[in-house]
Amino acid sequence: MSDYAIGDIHGCHDSLRALLDRICFRPDCDRLWFVGDIINRGPRSLESLRLVRSLGDNALVTLGNHDMHFLAVALGGHSPRRKDTLAEIFEAPDRNELIDWYLQQNFAVHDPGRDLLMVHAGLPHLWTVEDALRHSRELEAVIQSSGASDYFRDMYGNDPARWSDDLEGMPRWRAITNYFTRMRFLAEDSTLDFAAKEGAEAGPEGFLPWFQYPRPDSAEVIFGHWAALEGRTETPGIHGLDTGCVYGGSLTALNLDTKELTRVEPCD
């Protein structure tokens, strides 16, 4: 049995198929960890989503910002964006089943044996792994509750930009959402910058990539979201897997035991 983590797919279904062939994935015994953003921007979002869902318990998934955007359109009354490639999902006969499946996924996945945490955007340095898992469970309970539509209606926004344990209700849930799904650059006090999206050296004054701050624990972290890094963090134990397949880069898998990387070029 082998475990692999796979970077942001963004609807690049053929690249995903090619990557699974390259790593000789065995669906009866191997397990795949998906860092999120399974859908959107690429050409075959519906097929990508169906493939991941078909893996059942052999797939572990964290929700990314594009996955959450899909749910915000489906459940929160938001309009699709100009560059979205989500129409085929909304028109699919299994649309509701796919929405329900998404609502059962996580914001953080932890493997205690490997001391390994998977998140979509990253882990702010003021949170321990235990904190992250607690906040993940809290937000998962919200999106699975009868108030999910209210949450998705009010999900978008940059306020508050800094975490406080005293936050309550929607401001608290929005902050958790933004740290898990949108984070790139942070100030030392964990204030989020939402504008900069380029490489690790391109942050505004007073902000660093989230993974450059000292952490309170030793867990390795797998993340996606930041295609401009091209997978390079230069930080031991921090594994960036978004290598920009949908933008002409590659799709990447990480063997969780050997840390070997396997990449395929776009083929959609």
Describe how the helices and strands are arranged.
Elements: E1 3-6, H1 13-22, E2 31-34, H2 45-54, E3 59-61, H3 65-76, H4 87-90, H5 95-103, E4 108-111, E5 116-119, H6 129-143, H7 148-153, H8 169-181, E6 185-186, E7 192-193, E8 208-209, E9 220-223, E10 238-240, E11 251-255, E12 261-264
Parallel strand pairs: 1-2, 2-3, 5-9, 9-10
Antiparallel strand pairs: 1-11, 4-5, 6-7, 6-8, 11-12
Report on the architecture of this protein.
There is one protein chain. By secondary structure, the protein is of the alpha/beta class. It contains eight helices and twelve strands. A hairpin with a 4-residue loop joins strand 4 (108-111) and strand 5. It is globular, with a radius of gyration of 17 Å.
Features:
268 residues; alpha/beta; Purple Acid Phosphatase, chain A, domain 2; five-stranded mixed beta sheet; four-stranded mixed beta sheet; 8 helices; 15% strand; globular
Compact description:
The chain is of the alpha/beta class. The protein has helices at residues 13-22, 45-54, 65-76, 87-90, 95-103, 129-143, 148-153, 169-181; strands spanning 3-6, 31-34, 59-61, 108-111, 116-119, 185-186, 192-193, 208-209, 220-223, 238-240, 251-255, 261-264. A hairpin with a 4-residue loop joins β4 (108-111) and β5.
How far do the termini sit from each other? Answer: 29 Å
* Global Rg: 17 Å
Q: From the 3D coordinates, which CATH architecture would you assign?
A: 4-Layer Sandwich
Strand order, sheet with most strands: 3-2-1-11-12
- Biggest pleated-sheet summary: 5 strands, mixed
Rough outline:
globular
Looking at the structure, the CATH topology is Purple Acid Phosphatase, chain A, domain 2
Give the tally of β-strands: 12
